[in-house]
Amino acid sequence: MFVPPPPNTPVAMTAIAVGATLVLVLFVLARALGARREGGSHDAATAGVVAGMGTGLLVVTLVALPIVMIYVGTNHHLATSKSTEFCMSCHVMEDYGTSMMVDDLSYVPAAHYQNRWVPRDEACYTCHTTYAMFGDVQAKISGVKHLLVNAFGTVPETLELYRPYSNRECLHCHGGARSFAENEFHVDDIEALVSDEVSCSECHDLYHEVTELDGMDLWQETRP
Amino acid sequence: MSRFLLSAPRSILWSSVLIAVGLALELVSLFFANPVSFTTFLVASACMAAGVLVFVLAVLRRPTPTGADS
Which residues in chain B touch residue A87, judged by CB atoms under 8 angstroms apart? Predict the structure, then answer.
């Protein structure tokens, strides 16, 4: 079974900031409830809070800090959603994770994952995002679609890409690399490769072959 | 500023409840990396945004009571 590495997203500082803000807001809430109980009205509650902590701190607590926490949380979750662990948390993706552990480097995902050609904690995202201006946004929209289908729809037996895989995504890393540039097949077809007339997958044609996983040997990582 | 705050009597209570719920949900969501935690964060953001809006709109819309600052 494939065990994805944990996401490389620091959580401690974000959690401390959110926790501290929560304490401040709970303090406001406690004062408001206390003052209301004593004064018997919402006006008394408001007056009690304003008198207790000052208007500046109150506005910071109820306006500025929540906005900052939404921003901080958005950044954190966008970073986390790129992680291999995030993708593998859906049951339907388990076989695709296992296919990266196949003990045969002619399989493209296995070669990339096992040789660390892609960061292991962001393996799926690195190959399956679009390296264009709105690639990240497109990836997030696709992710939300997957979430909805997983929760409310029927997951298809065979998963397919939304559009043919563009060579641009391969050339983002391999273009200009010596091993790529000195390969005679690449040199002969470079223009066709750049313009997507010829797909990289015409030669490198073994990917996530999840239907063939049964009986295949899996790579056992050994650390020195 | 205090007279504006005093003119919005219910806003502090409601907005602090909404923001506290949002922050608590966000805090929980930070420790997981899966679509459920992502959705939880979206709900948390909506709660916090609603809390901020409740407070700001109440402060801006309510008539100012005379002499509240004095």
Answer: none
CB A161 within 8 A of CB A124: no
Q: Using the beta-carbon criterion (under 8 Å), do A77 and B5 form an inter-chain contact? A: no
CA distance A61 to A66: 7
- Whether B68 is covered by a domain: the verdict is no
Nearest to A67 among B16, B31, B52 (CB): B52
- Nearest by CB to B2, from A55, A63, A80: name it: A55
* Residue B48 to residue A22, Cβ atoms within 8 A: no
Interface test with A, best of B3, B10, B32, B34 (most A CBs within 10 A): B34
Domain extent at residue B21: 2-61
Is A40 part of any domain? Answer: yes
Residue A90 lies in a domain: no
Show Cβ contacts of residue A140 under 8 Å, excluding neighbours closer than 6 positions: A78, A81
The total of structural domains in chain A comes to 1
**pLDDT tens sequence across A78-100:** 899 899 999 999 888 999 999 99
* Partner-chain contact B22 A66, CB within 8 Å: yes
Tens-place pLDDT, residues B20-67? 999 999 999 999 988 889 989 999 999 999 999 998 888 777 665 555
With respect to residue B12, please indicate whether it lies within any of the assigned structural domains: yes
The residue range of the domain holding A60 is 12-80
Task: Give DSSP secondary structure letters for A6-67.
Answer: PP----HHHHHHHHHHHHHHHHHHHHHHHHHHHHSSHHHHHHHHHHHH-HHHHHIIIIIHHH
